[in-house]
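Subject: Re: docking follow-up (magnesium ion)

Dear J.,

Thanks for your patience while I sorted out the input files. As discussed at Tuesday's group meeting, I've set up the holo structure prediction with magnesium ion included as the bound ligand rather than trying to dock it afterwards. The sequence and the ligand SMILES I used are pasted below, so you can double-check that they match what you have on your end before we go further.
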Amino acid sequence: MIFEKINTVPTSEELLNKSFRRATRAMSGKNITGRRTALEANESMMLTAANILTDNLKNIVRRFPTFENLPPFYYELADVIVGVDDMRKSLSRLDWASVKIHEIAREYVGRVRKSNDPLPVRKQCFGRISSIIYSIDKDLLFLNQARNKLRKLPTVSDEPTIVVAGYPNIGKSSFVTKVTGATPEIAPYPFTTKGVSIGHFFVENERYQVMDTPGLLDRPMSERNEIELQAITALKNLDAVVLFIIDASETCGYEIEDQKRMLEEVRREFKLPVLVVGNKADLPEFKDLDFVDMKMSTATNEGVSEVTSILIEMVKKAIQEKELIKEKEEMETDDL
Ligand SMILES: Nc1nc2c(ncn2[C@@H]2O[C@H](COP(=O)(O)OP(=O)(O)OP(=O)(O)O)[C@@H](O)[C@H]2O)c(=O)[nH]1
Ligand SMILES: [Mg+2]
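The structure tokens for the complex came back this morning:
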């Protein structure tokens, strides 16, 4: 999973406890008698505590991804789910706290050296460090929530993809199982309880990804909220085409008119190439429909490999067009 490297983000309380405990432990067993050893002891307690805090804060920041480098699909999902801007702000406040704590520790090391009684100086230092850490309490909590949500994002690779859509019970899973020849892997996807299932197949040494999207692309777009729609359109960042399956026998329990309406919505929302295929061609109830491009039966295999070949051609073409656009854009910026 792409975000699995992010560890739990500790609370401010946990951070402080950990660092002060360690600082105290570093001192235990040392025989502090004279002024000199007392100075050294307090000095090193402050430095230990500060180092542990700055190390911890830096580690948290480092383990979060650099959002600019994320594949666009994940960037968009991360943005929908937690807000990339808010994450950036919180992370930069952690950076700020880390710098500040380092400064405070150095300042107080200087003060301890000049003082007759180092204990109150050290206590004041810990007080200031604590209030810095408490001031980023909200950021730590927010980042931990973000982390928990990001970890649930699906493993979708940046490779040619076929997204399978259509009403429930029309043969989406049957198609995915047929072409990938295996039980697809189930990956979590925000807003679907069932997750998306992802399978792969190879043609001429090229790997293709097939996504079955139960609960995601099996009901009308008009029933969805804004966030859900954005999560769906994150898919457009993939090199993908949509296979829209119609149950032309209506044995799935949904009328052709409703299925057709959903198809129009999918076209509108996705702006991806769509292949419309009538499934269950083996049934006597099957109807030939004018808006359907091809027909198949995942039960008898009729038409399945033809549909797959057309989909592959469509993905290849989509990728070529994308590359042409990119080249053109690069040439235009060169001209400037
Ligand atoms: N006769 C016939 N039945 C089919 C065909 N394809 C699928 N079915 C049947 O239709 C039912 C639904 O198939 P699935 O592949 O589970 O459909 P789905 O679209 O994934 O359904 P959900 O995951 O519930 O949305 C099953 O009982 C299949 O056996 C077909 O080509 N012909
Ligand atoms: Mg299914």
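A couple of observations from a first look. Residues 304-335 form the longest helix (32 residues). The two ends are 40 Å apart (CA to CA).

Let me know if you'd like me to rerun anything.

Best regards,
T.
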